[in-house]
Design a protein that fits this description.
Number of strands: 3
Strand order of the largest sheet: 1-2-3
Mean pLDDT: 79
Distance between the termini: 22 Å
Protein name: C2H2-type domain-containing protein
Largest sheet: 3 strands, antiparallel
Helix content: under 10%
Organism: Actinomycetospora chlora
Number of helices: 1
Keywords: Membrane, Transmembrane, Transmembrane helix
Oligomer: single chain
Bound molecules: zinc ion
């Protein structure tokens, strides 16, 4: 899904991801178990709206 911006390790199984909303933006707070770095991935409302609705 995503990779650590610091060491490049995959965050799929080794990292911690917390999903939350800030206004209309969807944000993922990621923690890398390999190097301990934290990063935030932001999906804006415009990006989220591209997902098909069922
Ligand atoms: Zn890392």
């Amino acid at each position: 899904m995503s990779h650590c911006a610091v060491c490049g390790a995959t965050l799929d199984d080794a990292g911690f991801v917390q999903e939350y909303w800030v206004g209309d933006d969807r944000q993922f707070l990621c923690w890398c178990a390999a190097c301990g770095a934290m990063s935030t991935v932001v999906l804006t409302a415009a990006v989220v709206s591209h997902e098909p609705e069922h």
